[in-house]
Amino acid sequence: MKQPISILPAIALRGTTILPDMIVHFDVSRERSIKAIEAAMLHDQKIFLVTQKDPEVEKPELSELYQVGTVAYIKQVVKLPHDLLRVLVEGIERAELLGLEQEEPFLKAETALFEPDGAQYTKSLKEAMFRSMQELFQRYCMESGKISKDLAAQIMNITELEELISQIAVNVPLTYQNKQKILEAVSLENQYEVLAAILNNEIEVLQIGHDLQRKLKARVDKNQRDYILREQLKLIREELGEENTADTAEGYRQKAEALDAPQEVKDKLNKEIDRFKSMNNAAAESSVLSTYIETLLGLPWNKKSEDSTDLKEAWKILEEGHYGLKDVKERIMEFLAVRKLTSGGKSPILCLVGPPGTGKTSIAKSVAEALHKKYVRICLGGVRDEAEIRGHRKTYVGAMPGRITAALSQAGVNNPLMLLDEIDKTSSDYKGDTSAALLEVLDPEQNNHFNDHYVEVPQDLSEVLFIATANDMDGIPRPLLDRMEVIEISGYTENEKEHIAKDHLIPKQLEVNGIPEGKLKIQTSALRKIITLYTREAGVRGLERKIGQICRKAAREIMENDQKKVTVNSKNLENYLGKARYSYLMANKKDEVGIARGLAWTQVGGDTLQIEVNVMPGKGELVLTGQLGDVMKESAQAGISYIRSVADKYGIAPEFFQENDIHVHIPEGAVPKDGPSAGITMATAMLSAIIGREVRADVAMTGEITLRGHVLPIGGLKEKLLAAKYAKIKQVLVPKDNKPDIQEMDAEILDGLKISFVDNMNEVLHEALA
Predict the structure, then answer these.
(1) Cβ contacts of 507 within 8 Å, gap of 6 or more
(2) What is the rounded end-to-end Cα distance, in angstroms, of the chain?
(3) How many domains does the chain have?
(4) Binding site for ATP: what residues are annotated?
């Protein structure tokens, strides 16, 4: 328990700590401290003295002060020239700093005195502590020689433990940090332990110093001052186990001579080694130079790994590691073929663009394995500082090379496969534009002289095989995109997901969860149900999580019930994964007026959109609901303008658009929707509602509409066609200009779908309206 709180003027001491029973004077120059002394003198001459943690801080706050200080009595104040005060104080009691009631014009501290130590110490314990403290003090006096014989005798004549500890703490020259430790020890036993530890440490340091002095005296002549200093420095380094600067520099020189690097690099190294050799090891720049030299020595300047040119083995590795991804595999095989024919050549810079979970990152590992290249990965997601790429100038504190240089050092060769992951998620701010820094890295015409700010010597990156990954091409700046060869990886079909799960995901999860082979069987029917009803994604990441969930539950069954084999089928799947999470919006069972089916691209694949239109008496307004974006709203406006332009053809009265409101709604109103590809779908649904003709339920469509009724091409066609297949759509209307995209698709995607190419709205309406 502490005594009641009292408010006292306070002084923050710099580099000194006042203990109870200590009589000491110190000079005061800060205005706040002078006013605190004046306030104390006007009251009861009591002041609270507390030490600040950092002596350099001019106006310390509460957090910058120690929590325990000393209540002192001001015995004398003397004014000195230059607005200085010399104050003589006597420490009375230690107290805890609870807070600062005010900070200006002087510090006022809320303090609480500590209650007297209420612990009961046995007579024998106090006697043991007393004798031990006397012995430590005697040994300290013998080793240090800083305590006069009279003072030592006076302290040794003390008969009370409390007084002995207090007088030793006051009279032994200790650092303010050690005195603060003693001050913060409240109980008698704690004070004894802290002071004993400090004295033991001081004695040990003094003994080591004496040993060093004795060794030096035996080695050198007292009058050779310079020689003594050199030998003393050498001996201290020997005791600490540190190498001599000259020896270290010589080691660097030998490594530099053996380094396989351009002459420019060797010249730079020798120049820096000469500087390092002539520098004092204690200088701050010495460690900076040492780190820089070691960085240059650690880089693989001309060190290469032998690339594989075995096309058959490479194809086998790519086929075993990944199902599908035909474009990527063929591009790698082309690169290998060219490499073999030319015995070299520039490495391509590939950019794999596709939704999450489609295998972009893992394909890079397979490519590295197929080429027998070292593999290093750099994650660029959220990188905002240009120095992360180009490195920091080595003059800065804590400077380091950029991520490209660090990755080369990690690989140990100058021709690794370097994966630049999430290149579309770099950002720029006041520290620089990260994507602009990557231009030099990824430009085949420039990267043979890449300049890292830390290394300061051009590096050749032309041998590096760069593979970048991105989720969205729109996030990559155009100049950067122009330097890369883009390969789009679209979502997997149900059949592809099924193959991937059987060949890769299930064996992997069985191994991860420790399930022996043959103990768990996931039937094909259950696998298809997981793909369609439990995951909605373009990739297979969610599918792998669901398989892992089944494996964990199966492992529990095997261990708890001692089952020999667990079989998961479509009937008992809910026992492992719960109720199905998704259901695709299936094709309507019958043709309806004002309802058309559109196709949309999302980050996790394709989806279908049911666009509903109602016509009602009103004032000629067009109402759009369903959280549509600006582009989608403009498509609806373009669609109604087209319908009004062909109203005569369909027998629509001129006054119809002034006397009726048209309401367009897309369900799932909480989900934001945007893009121009729903233009022909909205126009079809609106015309159907206006003229009362039904839209075919088995038809879906995608395409942008113009005011004149032309149909413009769209993107994400593969994902949209997959969504149509899931929804059991029979016919899909596709812009005529997208015909090359259809021709490049696998037959598996198009199987069961009738693709009709349309060039204008007349063709759309001919196919869509019943």
Answers:
(1) none
(2) 90
(3) 6
(4) 354-361
Alpha-carbon distance 66 to 184, whole Å?
Answer: 9
Q: What is the CATH number of the domain that holds 89?
A: 2.30.130.40
In the predicted model, what is the mean pLDDT of residues 35-62? 86
Nearby residues of 268 by Cβ (< 8 Å), 6 or more positions away:
296, 456, 457
Q: Of 179, 181, 546, 720, which residue is the catalytic one?
A: 720
Same domain, 139 and 7: no
Q: Is residue 144 scored above 70 in pLDDT? A: yes
Instruction: Answer yes or no: are the C-beta atoms of 612 and 626 closer than 8 Å.
Output: no
- The alpha helices in 562-605, defined as continuous H runs, are 574-577
In a domain, 36, yes or no: yes
pLDDT in tens, 446-457: 778 888 888 888
State the DSSP code for 505.
Answer: I
pLDDT band at 277 (very low <50, low <70, confident <90, very high): confident
- Angle CA 626–630–632, to nearest 5: 60
Q: How confident is the model at residue 383 (pLDDT cuts 50, 70, 90)?
A: confident
3-class secondary-structure state, position 577:
helix
Known binding residues: 354-361
Lowest mean pLDDT among 284-293, 737-746, 758-767: 284-293
Q: What is the side-by-side order of every strand in the sheet holding 417-421?
A: 375-379, 417-421, 465-470, 349-353, 485-488
pLDDT for res 288? 81
- CATH code, domain with 654: 3.30.230.10
Q: Which residues of 609-647 are buried (b: 16+ CB within 10 A; e: fewer)?
A: bbbbbebeeeeeeeebebebeeebeebbebbbebbeeeb
Q: What's 347's domain CATH number?
A: 3.40.50.300
Residue 588 has pLDDT above 50, yes or no: yes
- pLDDT, one tens digit per residue, over 293-327 is 888 888 888 888 888 878 888 888 888 877 777 77
Among residues 97, 114, 131, the one where a domain terminates is: 114
Q: Is 738 found in the same domain as 642?
A: yes
Q: Tell me how many degrees the CA angle 148-154-158 measures, rounded to the nearest 5.
A: 140
| Residue at 582 is within a domain | no
Please write the tens of the pLDDT for every residue from 169-219.
Answer: 888 888 888 888 888 888 888 888 888 888 888 888 888 888 888 777 766
Structural domain span for residue 468 = 311-488
**451 in the same domain as 339:** yes
Q: Tell me which of 749 and 603 has the higher pLDDT.
A: 749
Who's near 699: CB < 8 A, 6+ residues apart? 597, 729, 730, 731, 732, 733, 767, 768
Active site residue 720: yes
> Do 528 and 467 share a structural domain?
no
Residues 464 and 355 in one domain: yes
Query: What's the pLDDT score for residue 1?
Result: 40
Same domain, 602 and 708: yes
> Is 355 buried (19+), middle (13-18) or exposed (0-12) by CB count in 10 A?
buried
CB atoms within 10 A of CB 407: 19
- Does a structural domain hold residue 230? no
State residue 584's pLDDT score.
Answer: 64
Question: Where residue 281 falls among pLDDT bands split at 50, 70, 90?
Answer: low
Closest Cα to residue 340, out of 311, 319, 364, 304? 311
Clarify whether residues 290 and 317 are in a common domain.
no
Residue 26 lies in a domain: yes
Closest by CA to 318, choosing from 306, 328, 307, 305, is 328
Mean pLDDT of the chain: 84
Per-residue pLDDT, 705: 92
Stretch 606-631: mean pLDDT? 89
Which of the residues 33, 677, 718, 725 is marked catalytic?
A: 677
Length of the chain: 770
Q: What is the DSSP letter of 59?
A: S
Question: What radius of gyration do the chain's Cα atoms show?
Answer: 41
753 and 639 in a common domain? yes
Q: What's the pLDDT at 616?
A: 93
Last residue of a domain, one of 466, 488, 510: 488
